[in-house]
Specification:
mainly alpha
């Protein structure tokens, strides 16, 4: 191997090491850690942007409608889905559900 080849290989190695140290390693170290059951806000905003969440109704739900919506929106989060939020609070106001002491309206 010639001296030019060794120099080029060394420069390529140093550049690769620099990329790993300055770009890849900080990304791996700063990845967000989520507690079980929590969703990051970026995921919630992405769901809203993709229109996966449902709008709140223009009228108050009856108890039966609230039960139906609550079951139908099982994969939705009540914080980001207006329909499920209204259904949950209709059921809470009717005494069907009892919220956790941490829940705020």
């Amino acid at each position: 191997m010639s001296t030019t080849g060794v120099v080029c290989a060394t420069v390529a190695g140093v550049v690769t090491l620099g990329v790993v140290v300055f770009y890849v390693l900080p990304y791996l170290l700063d990845r967000p850690v989520h507690v079980d059951g929590e969703r990051p806000s970026t995921e919630i905003l992405a769901r809203i942007a993709r229109d996966q969440c449902h709008r709140a109704p223009d009228y108050p739900y009856s108890i039966e409608e609230a039960r139906r919506v609550f079951r139908a929106r099982i994969n939705c989060d009540a914080d980001s889905c207006g329909a499920k939020h209204e259904a949950v609070w209709t059921l809470i106001d009717a005494g069907v559900l009892r919220p956790s002491t941490r829940v705020e309206r």
